[in-house]
Amino acid sequence: MTYKVAALYQFVSLPDFRDIRDPLHAVCADLGIRGTLLLAEEGINGTVAGTEEGVDALVVELQQGPLFHGRLDNLELKFSTASDMPFGKMKVRLKKEIVTLGDPQTDPTRQVGTYVSPAEWNKLIESPDVILLDTRNNFEVEMGTFAGAVDPRIRKFSEFKDFVKKELDPSKHKKVAMFCTGGIRCEKASSYMLGQGFEEVYHLKGGILQYLEDVPEAESRWNGGCFVFDERVSLGHGLVERPEDRSPADE
């Protein structure tokens, strides 16, 4: 059996996020969905899996159902497949942030960097005046990244702001391009950098996953696999599972 996997997020005001938790969990349970969804006052984030019919029904509920009252009108969605169910159970968690940067002044609903489509990404990062940043954690970078990208050597995303303060300078780094797995970390990172005075900040629309789906392997600047936070471990071009990145214990 093949399972449909949906990675999703949206930054949106959800002052009632605590009240949404239990009914959202019930909806997922009724549809046979497993995975993790994070709810915070700033929005929703997570990855879930189930049958194609179940995942499609959940997306309709999120976008059109009574739980969110039409607020998820710009939901970022990325679909892939898994040969086995990649999650053991369903979890809906309440958080302070749907992706933790730890800077209260950073608000992606107010300002973010300029989105760049996968089709335009290669041209941007080949420009000599661009500094290319990988915003992911170091173990993710080790599995795969774009050629020429700067690895900030962070253990967790909340350390990204410290890297920026120590290593980057708005007066020197005039043009910054950044990327992450599905796009959500770049929403926070680009918003933070704009707030720190960086003038031109670009980020890959839909993240690495969208790039691997849209850009032919022969034209790709990506090397290695893209780590995903489930039992598939990593994906390659065409969002195909990479069994070579699984350890023997994973089999």
UniProtKB/TrEMBL annotation:
<dbReference type="GO" id="GO:0016705">
    <property type="term" value="F:oxidoreductase activity, acting on paired donors, with incorporation or reduction of molecular oxygen"/>
</dbReference>
<dbReference type="Pfam" id="PF17773">
    <property type="entry name" value="UPF0176_N"/>
</dbReference>
<comment type="similarity">
    <text>Belongs to the TrhO family.</text>
</comment>
<feature type="domain" description="Rhodanese">
    <location>
        <begin position="126"/>
        <end position="220"/>
    </location>
</feature>
<dbReference type="Pfam" id="PF00581">
    <property type="entry name" value="Rhodanese"/>
</dbReference>
<comment type="function">
    <text>Catalyzes oxygen-dependent 5-hydroxyuridine (ho5U) modification at position 34 in tRNAs.</text>
</comment>
<dbReference type="GO" id="GO:0006400">
    <property type="term" value="P:tRNA modification"/>
</dbReference>
<keyword id="KW-0560">Oxidoreductase</keyword>
<dbReference type="InterPro" id="IPR001763">
    <property type="entry name" value="Rhodanese-like_dom"/>
</dbReference>
<dbReference type="InterPro" id="IPR040503">
    <property type="entry name" value="TRHO_N"/>
</dbReference>
<keyword id="KW-0819">tRNA processing</keyword>
<dbReference type="InterPro" id="IPR036873">
    <property type="entry name" value="Rhodanese-like_dom_sf"/>
</dbReference>
<protein>
    <recommendedName>
        <fullName>tRNA uridine(34) hydroxylase</fullName>
        <ecNumber>1.14.-.-</ecNumber>
    </recommendedName>
</protein>
<dbReference type="InterPro" id="IPR020936">
    <property type="entry name" value="TrhO"/>
</dbReference>
